[in-house]
Structure to design on (171 residues):
């Protein structure tokens, strides 16, 4: 029902849309700025794509491609005791990611691209759909920026985690 109400408001082009939620007893708020934000929320919290059976509860999670933090929030509600490093290279999303996880203990942001070696790399920001940003150049609608690239081993080190128990990979 909640998603239907949000989509109904979306059809009236009401953005930004501020909403408060509770999932598994954890309260949080989000600001939706586009239909893509709504669809991502729906996929995470209604579709549960990361709902899996694990042999043990993860203590250290790396969220590769955190975007605005919706998947990070979902992982936090599933594993509230875990420490989570939200990795996002899109410099235009970092402020929104920070706002999404503000005040939540145990979540940190790593502003890097995931690469095969530690170096500065070109990153292409899709200006119409953040889900289309990439290390690979696109034909239209992208802005090229320089970002720091890190290997998974370097990301673990930057997070301060002694190990990685779970990786969410959406890049």
């Amino acid at each position: 029902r909640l998603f239907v109400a949000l989509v109904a408001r979306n059809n009236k082009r009401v953005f930004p849309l501020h909403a408060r939620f509770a999932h598994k007893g954890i309260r949080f708020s989000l600001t939706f700025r586009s239909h893509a934000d709504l669809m991502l929320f729906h996929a995470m919290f209604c579709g549960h794509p990361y709902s899996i059976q694990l042999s043990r509860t993860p203590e250290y999670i790396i969220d590769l491609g955190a975007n605005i933090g919706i998947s990070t929030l979902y992982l936090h509600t599933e594993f509230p005791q875990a420490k989570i490093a939200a990795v996002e290279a899109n410099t235009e999303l970092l402020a929104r990611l920070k706002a999404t996880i503000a005040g939540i203990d145990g979540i940190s942001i790593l502003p890097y691209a995931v690469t095969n070696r530690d170096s500065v790399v070109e990153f292409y920001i899709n200006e119409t759909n953040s889900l289309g940003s990439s290390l690979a150049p696109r034909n239209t609608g992208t802005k090229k920026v320089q970002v720091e690239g890190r290997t998974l081993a370097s990301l673990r080190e930057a997070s301060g985690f002694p190990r990685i128990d779970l990786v969410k990979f959406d890049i």
About this structure: The chain has a mean pLDDT of 88. The chain has five helices and nine strands. The longest helix spans residues 35-45.
